[in-house]
Each structure stands twice: as structure tokens, then as C-alpha cells.
Structures
1.
Amino acid sequence: MDTSPHAIVIGSGVAGMAAAIRLAVQGYAVDVYEQSAEPGGKLGYFETKGYHFDAGPSLFTQPANIEELFELAGEPISDYFRYTKMDHSCHYFYEDGTMIRAAADTDVFAAELQQKTGEPAHHLKHYLSASGKLYEGVASVFLNHSLHKRKSLFKAGIGKAIKTVRISHLMKSMHQMNQRSFQSEKVVQLFNRYATYNGSNPYKAPGMLSLIPHLEHNEGTFYPEGGMISITKALYQLAIKKGVVFHFNQPVERIIRHHNKAIGVVVGEKNILSDIVVSNVDVYFTYLRLLNDSEKAKKILKQERSSSALIFYWGIGKSFSQLGLHNIFFSNNYQQEFDHLFRLKKAYQDPTVYINITAKCEPGKQAPEGKENWFVMVNAPANVGQDWSNLKMMYRKAVIDKLNRLLQTDIESLIETEDVLDPVLIETKTGSYQGSLYGTSSNSKMAAFLRHPNFSSQIEGLYFVGGSVHPGGGIPLCLKSAKIMSDIVQDDTRKRKRH
């Protein structure tokens, strides 16, 4: 008879699968319940007429987070997953015709900025050096440990983090910090865009977010062979290898509580008991639907939601030599665009357009020969009941007009296949409240501390992972949330054994 402790994970997003792997390595028998037919959450995939599309996140940074999981599980990563480092992180296009290729080599990138915008090369080097120091000093503490356990913060070197932080990191906005660092408005805009990495507004979010560019420019961007879906496949295969059992098309109806302890879940009107429960569901829906605690759910909504997105998946019947894996076509008035996203909750008529093209890395595999698979995304406000069928048409026209101008072509005539994902569908498919991609925004100084912890202080044995809890959204942070959670579970288990 198996005497292993039993863990139930609700949801098989990236964080849910990473959590399951970590708990299995700790000796838990793990069952994962997933409402949809396959794993991955936002990191999904589909194919149409020979065009392959990653449905969600398209940027891969910090592969060390995935490598660590395989190492922990004692499995060679190369059997499951391969990736390559990119020579350029992004191609940037501005309305006046300026085009900047951000090389992975800082000297080359600095020379390009100087040539195209007149920005002195040493400004970039100084900025990226400061970004790296801020990341090493602060992020390594705050992103790898719980902010809600005093012991873990002291263990992590909170003193070093406090010494690294300057008043300006907290009191000035990211935009103000970038304005102080660069003289070219184009370069300021380029670095302001990193606020969108966690669905925030660079004109409101604290200067602390200037640590984000470190990931892309100092550590590098990578391409996973086979596209982003290969991350989902690798984690799923690893979880199965470690004995994790997945139950697809089986939504959890509620979490069972007994004497303020989570003791299992209800699935298909059956009680399934366990020692611990881990929710990879948006924390708002966890309280509202799975715990029937509307008061606690309401409290979570006091924090501003992150932005959402509108995505067009276009099969394009031509190849564009000036485009790379990642491409940004900037809005002419960035501040107005963010004002629309967060304050007015409206679409902006001149959105910034992001295009991801995996066919650039695997031509002929990700799209038919000589053609390209375009993942075209614009930032959109979180869903508060806007008329999305109308907004989709408006955004589509604005995107096509901009691309026609900047690429000097007729995009519409090249679109061979089209699918669309809007904030309402994002909420329906992935359970992100209001279609917010990153749960809450980081538009306030205290946002990091207000994110929900990776454990419940009221309900023993209940834990949380994923983009809606600490440390935040995006693949690297979701993977880190699983590590933080499993460390807390280990600590809690030791405490119980002592008593």
C-alpha cells in the first residue's frame, strides 16, 4: 500500500506542471485536475493549413528555470527540450521609418542606437549595467523567495537588496528613470516597453521595473526548438516520468475545507481527498468559485488588473526579410496608448503592434515554404464589458494600416488564414479574470508586496502558483512561483513533523 503523502494540483498551466514535478520529487503522489483537454494553460498551440501557431506567450528568457527542474528530477534536458540563443532580441520600427535591430551583443546594439538615434553608446552600457546590478541585488531576493515569510527573506539576503535599491527606483516611474538615462525619445520608448512584460504602465509603474531589460539584454533571448509549445510538451513529459497523473476535461468544482484545512477537492460531484491542495487557477476565481469566499475575492480586486491583449494569428503568404523572430511597431504616442489601456479602459486608435514569427527560426517547419506564421498582438484593456466585436474590427484595421505604412506593402492581400483571441476568450479559455494576462498590474510602488502569497494564511495545506500570485506573470515568474511554493511546503512539512 502506497503511504506517500498525496497532493492535488488544480490546473496544468506552466506553473501547475512545475509545481507537480517539484512535489513529485519531494515524494508526493500527485494528481493534476485540468478543465481543458490538454496541458499548458495559456501556453497552447494550434495548426491550420500548414501554419503552426503558439497561442500564448512568445518570448523565452531564463532557460535556467527549466534546466533546474530537469536537474532536480534527475533527467537529461536534451532528451526532452532544445533551445538556441538569439543573435537579436527584437527589431523595432518607428513611424518616421527608423528601424533598430537590438543585437544580443551590447557593443553592437549601442553602436546601432548611436547611429540611428544619436544616443551616446555609453548610455546603453551604463543602463544595462545598472539593470543587471538591480536584478542581482533585488530580484534574486524578491523573485526567488516568499515576501510573506520573514524567515525566507532574511535567509535570502534582504540586507543586500535594501542596499541596492535607490529612492528613485520606488519614487520615480519607469518612464522618468528611462528619461534620465537616455536623451533620445526613441530609446526611452524602447525601454518603456518593458513595463508590458508584466502588463503594467511605464508612466505609473515604479522605476524598479528597469531591472526587466537585464533578462533580455544581459542574459539573452532564446528560441525553443519547435516553438513555445515545446516547453509545455517537455514539462508534461517530465511530470509523467516522475509519476504525476493528469486528469483532463475534469474541472474542480470546489476545494474541500475541514477545520480550516484543505483536505481535497470535489470533481464530478465526488470527494477526492489529499494532504495538500495547490491552485494554479487565477487566485480571484480560486476564492470566488472554489472556496465560495466572495469577500476574499473582492479584496483581491482592490488591486488594479494588468492589461490584456488582442491577438491575430495570420498565415502570411510571403516572407519579409526585414523582420525577425520578435518585432515591435511603435505607437506614435505611447503615453496616450497607456492612458487608454489603464485609465479609460478603451482601445487606442494607434496601437503598438508586436509580431512574433517562429518561421524565422524554423523555415518550412513552422509555416509553408516561403511563407510566415504571424502572431500579431496589441495590448488591450482588461475586459470590463467593452464591445469586443467592434473593437476587434477597429484594432484589425489599425494594425493593417500601420503595417502597410511601415512595411510598404498590402498586408490584407497576404493573409491566408486568420484566427483571433480577445480578452473575453482569454478569460474563458484560461480562467484569467477579465482576460488580464498577468493577474494584477505593477502600477503601484507596493504592487509586489500586495500580490497574493504562495500559501494561504487562513487555510492550512492550501498553496498557490501561477501568474496571479507572487512573484507574477510570464513564464520565468510562473516557474519561480512553483519553486517558492514547494520550498514553503517542505518547510511546513518539517514543522508538522517536529510538533
2.
Amino acid sequence: MIALAIGLVIGFLMCIPIGPINIWVINTFIRRGASQALSIALGGSIMDFIYFYVILSGISLFTISDNAIFLFKSAGIALIFILGVKELVSKAKEIEVKQSSQSPVRLASGFILGVIIYTSNPTLIITMTGLGAFVKSLQLFELSQLNIFLASIGLAIGSYVWFVLLVFVTAKYEFKIRDRYLSKFVKISGGLMVALSLFMTFKLATT
């Protein structure tokens, strides 16, 4: 259970710094509702689990060619860039709060977006590798397959709990954000997505 607890704490804390994924979750919650916002978070949290499990285990679960990885990341970066530009160029009258939708298609699109944002980020491997090395250096639990699984699932749950808390806090100030800051918030969200895609492009081109 120590492995699970450590994973929970690390997963929660690593998501606190404000970044594109946090802004995108807030923006999606305000405009689309909690279900789609949390589906984005779920996609990211599942990728957290996969990355952390693979890194702690020191194994490769999939054999994927470098060309396939490059194409997948490029497609993800292009999608993030397009979504960011769409938010940036949207006019005030186009920015509106839509009814919350729980349709399977919208939830699936949110989940896929969360996966793409995470897997397209070249710095995620570095971050997860650092976290894995840190956890191993603590030597607080035996690195058995069970403990590695528990630590990884704990990290995923911890990150998802952060996003649930983020949505809960946003809900308390939802109407204020909608009435006074929605237009600016959408622009900030779009700007961060564009900046993230450009940074990803630079990292992809230099690796």
C-alpha cells in the first residue's frame, strides 16, 4: 500500500503547475460541461499510468517504429495547433457557453484529445523518467510487479483527482468566469495551445 500512496501523492502534485492541459480542462468545463472536461483528464491520466508503469518496469510494452512515432506526434502537434488557432481567432460573439453534452462521441473526442496532448509532448518522457528515478531512489518499497502496478495506478488516480478538484473549484466561480473573463480565458487557452504545439515542434525537430 506504500507504493499506492506514493503514487497518489506524486500524481496529484505533478499536475498542480498551471499548464495547457489544466487550462484546456477549465475551458472545456465552462463551454462543454464537466463530463467532456473530465474525459480529457481521463485520457491524460491513463497515459500517466502507461508511461510510469513502463518506466518503472524498464520494459517496452509496444514495438513501434521511429517513423510511426514521429508521424503520430506530428499529427498530434498539428491537431493541438489547429485547436489553439481556432480559439485565438474566435470572435466574441462566437464564444458562447454550450449545453453540457454527454454523448459518447463528445466524450470519446475529449478522451482522445487528452491522450494526444500527453503523447505529443516530448518533455513528458523526461518528466516521467525523472519521477521514476526519484521513486526508485526513495527505496520505500520493493520494485515488484505488483508494487510497480500500484504506484502507477496511484499516480494515475492522483492526477485524475487533481483534475476533479480543478473542475470542482472552477464550478464555484463558473458564472463569474463566464460573465467577465470567458473571452480572455478562451484567448489564453488558445495561446497556450499554440505555444505548446510550437514548443513540441521544436523539441521534435531537435531530437
3.
Amino acid sequence: MKISAIIPAGGTSSRFGGKNKLLEKIFDKEVIKYTVDAFCASFVDEIVICANPSIIDVLKEIFSDYSKVKIIAGGASRQESVFNGLKICDCDYVLIHDGARPMVSTEIINRAIEMVKETKALTVATKTVDTIKEVENGKIIKTIDRAKLYNTQTPQAFDYSLIFEAHKKLSGQNFTDDAGMLEKLGYDVYILDGSYKNIKITTQNDIEIAKVYLK
């Protein structure tokens, strides 16, 4: 049984201040290297990074001695990047994880691998702890019951054939969440409780938060 991981890394980091956040260093180690190292220590057999063409050469240098890692060109959208990765995978199950989530733990990755064998589709998520308001034109319309609300994270894990067929059927659209593609097609997707530390690096402020967690 073979397990692959796809790490989409094709974004432009437009909200990060003119440089690619995945190459930002925290304690002399790139953000994406923290991410990849967590997967290298897991039960995953191969890791496919779907990268922005502008950083492919840099990534090849960073991961030159990583036997599990393949680096390919990503697409114009996250969905297209993941599809590019799926096309070259030869596996039974696949995990998809944001390159900009360096605090992911090897433990949660391995738990996702074990759980997906039973559920076929899952997403790591955390229960929503804030009170959520629905707003229209600057005015609160209602308060939403948070008891059933979760914040979606990654990794998300799938039976390979299931998610590959979903990508083929929904090709050309702009899903930012692979689990959402299966939901759209009527498949069940399950929740694996994650960690509130598993944040996504989006702004410079997130780097400061990451430093606290990674210290």
C-alpha cells in the first residue's frame, strides 16, 4: 500500500510583502522545509511539491538530498496545482497539505493515513471557538451556532482514485479546498481533530507566531 503527499506551493504570496513566504526562514530553516520534514518522518512514501515556476530551482537545491521529494510545476490555481500532482502519483491514498503550514506534526499526518483507510476522505479541522456573526452591509444579521462549526486545516487525506476522479470531473473550476470538491459531488468527508497550532503562514505576523510554536 503506497501513500503519497502533495504539497501545493504555487502561490505568489501576494499578502506577504513581495517575497515568497515558503522560502522565509525561521531559525535558519525555510518554512517549506519544516513542512516537508514532518512528512518525511511519517509513513508517506513520496512527496510531490507542486511549485511556482519561479522557485523550482531554489526548491531543487533545498531538497537535493531528499530521496522522497519530487518537484514539479504547479498551475495557475491551487486546484490546478493539486491536479498536476495527482497526475504523477502512483498510490493508494494521498494526502494534500498546504506548504505554508509548517507546524503540522508527524503524529497528525500518521493519524490521517490510518483513518483514511477506513473513511476514504477526511480533513483535519479544529472546532470553532469564536462566536461567529453573519454580516450584511456592515450590519449583523444573526449569530451562528458554533456548536457544529469547524475550521478546516490540512492535511486532507483521500482514497487516490476518489479524489483523482473528482478533480477530473470538476476540472477548470476554482476550488480552494479538495474536501469541498468531494462534498460538491455528494461524497462523505470526515473530520480528524487537529491542532490550533497548525496555522497557515499568510502574513509577516504569522511568522512571529510560528517562531513561538517552533522554538
4.
Amino acid sequence: MLTSTFCHIPGIGLQMERTLWAAGIHTWETLRERRAGDFPLGPGRERIVRPFIDQSFVHLRQRNARFFAGLLPAEQHWRIFPEFRESLAYLDIETTGMGTPDDHITAVALYDGRNLRSFVDGRNLDQFEEALGEYEVIVTYNGKCFDVPFIRHAMGIPLDQVHIDLRYVLKSLGYAGGLKACERKLGIGRGDLDGMDGFFAVLLWEDYTENANERALDTLLAYNALDVVNLERLMILAYNMKLKGTPLHPAHLLPLPEMPEIPFKADLKTIERIKGRMFYYS
């Protein structure tokens, strides 16, 4: 999709981009090959567009996602996804609360479509920053409002990767609400972890720390891991839906990913006990 994108070029907006697509100009290469007398945007824009296409090819070869993110409107950052998929990670955190001064990160899940890594407070959370540095792009759900500011505040990590927040991508497609609500609307299930939410995750961490319950930690990590695994599926569903209505739709569609094996197992007895605590709090 990125090499079919023109709205990052100065002077070309979404409407003009669609005009180019309608004229059969679907790629940078197609536009660059047009002769001067046959250039569809006029001689004034031609002087800007031709060198910009050359720059775009260079930055794509250099795997510089920031170049494109800096030029594309934020709501169009989803276009970066396929070309930078090999240097992209899905990210989700669990915390002890909603961000008061006493709250801290309990677990982080990082998934790149191949490898799933979990980082736990008191164990290996200090390794998270180095692992995150391997990626040019991150994908979250509501990460711009929660995960990223929390990580910056709690861990002092700059976290300056290109950021695709699926909350806004899905909202533009008519899917509003939290992550789990969007999953349900799009037919993504959670099995034994259905019904769990952020408050449940807080109680799981309390059970682990107060009672040394390793099964509670495993359940928390399974929940956290499922969040990032499902983000990949949501990203591809959203990407495919964004393509609809464009002439690029059939050729650029992506298949849904295989469900990876999650190395943590949710403990049903722990879940039922925590549900009892939640009923008590309510």
C-alpha cells in the first residue's frame, strides 16, 4: 500500500490521490514513468513530485518508517504496515492501576508476528527497553493515551517509534469501544480468558504478589499475551477494510495470521476465585 500512496507528497491530498488512482496510476513507479508532456498533475507539481518519489524509494530501501510517518496524516499511518511488518511489534502493558503516582507496570507483552516475549516486574522487565529497540514501528490499542505515556513516565523510555494506534483506525471504520468490544464485533474470541479486563489483571497481580501464586501470574501473562496476538489480527482486518473502496483492494489484501502458541496457561480455578473477588468489590 505504501508504494501506492501519494498523499505524503506536498500538494497532494486524499482527493487528488484518488484522482490518480482513477487514472490508473497506482504506484510511485507508474507516476515516475510518465513523460513530461503526459504528467497528470501539471508542470508545477511535477517539479515537486518527481524528486519526492525518488526520495520515497530511497527511504523505503533504507527502512526509514519515520520519513513516511512524518509526512502522512496520523490517521493514514496504517498504510505503513505491510512494508514495515518485519520491523514492527505489537505492544501491550499491564499495570497496578490507571496511572496514579504509586502505580507501576507489572508486565509487558511484545509480539512481532513471529516471536512473543513477556517482561515481568521483578524478573526481566529491565530487558524490555533493549527488546523494544529492535523495532521501527509499534502497534497498540489506545496506546497513545495509556501504554506509551505510562511507559515513558514509569520507565523513562523515549519510545519514539512510529506508532499505529488501532483504537483510532478501528473507530474510523465504525468500531468504537475498548479492545475486547472491538474483538467481539469482529468475531475474535478469547476462550478461557473471555470476560477478563484490566481490573481483573490488577487482581491477578495482587494474588501473585500477596500469595506467591504462580498460577495467577501465568494467567496474567496469558491474558497479556493474548492482547498482543489479537492486535495482529485486528491490524490485518483493519488494513483490509481500509483498502475497500479503492482500486488497490483485491491485489493488496492480506491473509489473516495463524494463531501462535501462547506459552502461558490460564488457571481456571484462579479465574473463578478472582471473579468472586470482583463480585465482592461490586
